[in-house]
Specification:
This protein is an alpha+beta fold. It folds into two domains: about 60 residues, 2,3-Dihydroxybiphenyl 1,2-Dioxygenase, domain 1; about 80 residues, 2,3-Dihydroxybiphenyl 1,2-Dioxygenase, domain 1 (Roll), CATH 3.10.180.10. A hairpin with a 7-residue loop joins strand 7 and strand 8. InterPro entries: Fosfomycin_Res_Enzymes (IPR051332), Glyas_Bleomycin-R_OHBP_Dase (IPR029068), Glyas_Fos-R_dOase_dom (IPR004360), Glyoxalase_1_CS (IPR018146), VOC_core (IPR037523). This is VOC family protein.
Length: about 150
């Protein structure tokens, strides 16, 4: 069997216009296409080369982390400085954060990032593979991305 790769991520949202503004204008995804029929609203978002994320206006309520399904969406950049650039943009947009500033993935880990919520409460992470070794680890030895 060939190895599988992630093709794209699909998220149900309550308000496509609000979510599109967040993912496009704050996180920088590029709008590739959209459906505007009243009962079939969706948006295809990419990174400039390929489809990364689809938003589907199908949810009736906010994200619920106590139900089975998506735990969080993890996005990666090359450096902690890039993580901090996103943190500034997210703070300016009023995003809710799970932790204050950049945190390590676990005690002593070099990798880390920021943990926040989209307009529907979906948990998101933007991290870098190194540069966070001096940052706190909110969950001690447990994975930070697992408990927020």
């Amino acid at each position: 069997m060939p190895a599988l790769r992630t093709g794209h991520i699909g998220l149900n949202v309550t308000d496509i216009d609000r979510s599109l503004a967040f993912y496009r204008d704050v996180l920088g995804f590029v709008l590739i296409g959209e459906g505007k029929e009243e009962d079939r609203r969706y948006a295809f978002l990419g990174d400039g080369e390929k489809l990364v994320l689809t938003l589907w206006q199908q949810a009736r309520g906010a994200y619920d982390g106590t139900r089975a399904g998506l735990h969080h969406l993890a996005l990666e950049v090359d450096s902690i400085d890039q993580v901090r650039t996103y943190e500034q943009a997210l703070r300016a947009a009023g995003a809710a954060f799970a932790h204050e500033g950049v945190v390590a993935h676990a005690e002593g880990a070099a990798s880390g990032g920021i943990f926040f919520h989209d307009p529907d409460g979906t948990r998101l992470e933007i991290s870098a593979p190194s540069g966070a070794q001096a940052a706190p680890a909110p969950s001690g030895a447990a994975p930070t991305c697992g408990f927020f």
